[in-house]
Amino acid sequence: MAVASSPEMAALFEEFRALRSELTTRIEKQQDITNFAIAILVGLLAVAKVIDGRTTASDSILQARVFFPWISIILSSFTLMVLDHEMNIAHLTIYIHNKLRPRVEAALFVTSTLWEWNSYRAQWQQHAGVLTTLTTPMAGAKYVVTVFPNLLLTVAYWYTRPPSAISVNWAWTTYLVSVALLVLVILAAGYTSRAYLSMEYKAHTESGEPVAR
Fold first, then answer.
1. Residues in Cβ contact with 89 at an 8 Å cutoff, skipping those fewer than 6 apart
2. Which of 26, 51, 76, 135 could link 85 by a cystine bridge, Cβ 3.0 to 4.6 Å?
3. d(Cα 177, Cα 70) in Å, to the nearest integer?
4. Domains of the chain, residue spans
5. How far apart are CA 116 and CA 114, in angstroms?
6. Per residue in 92-112, pLDDT tens?
7. Which pLDDT value is given to residue 210?
């Protein structure tokens, strides 16, 4: 059999290169967003340290309380931007492996599987077993930088402003917005995780069976 025409192969590989380039760019932007979030948190901790040196810890929390919802909104925004890249990375990876790769194999009339990195990675990171308890937290560690402080701020604001002190004003409205965004972050994280967990990579193991997940 003849290999597919050069224009067809060129188009397929050009698409592959474009998708790989987008993957690399999105991974780099994810890291930039995370670094920026860390820098902001470090700055906030430095300010809190200065305030704490002048007052007690409880007074410091009360003085900074008004900023908690705004900081929460900023952290949620960072997390949503990271999740947007994460979701697109997952979908790009799925498309390359499940859609583009078979087209290239068919065009080349090859009998072996091309681009097996995802299958190899999945064998170690998405297989069923106790090691999943190690790989899953590692994959989600980047979100701890923003989600965990976000949760602390949300709880601290509620704790320092009990329901008896609630009144309908801009401060309470801002807090509700921050809570809504935090819920959206958690839902988006669940959706993105589902995209990764739904990846199915067929690997050529010695037994000929797909990699277990």
1. 23, 26, 27, 30
2. 26
3. 9
4. 6-197
5. 6
6. 988 988 889 888 888 888 777
7. 41
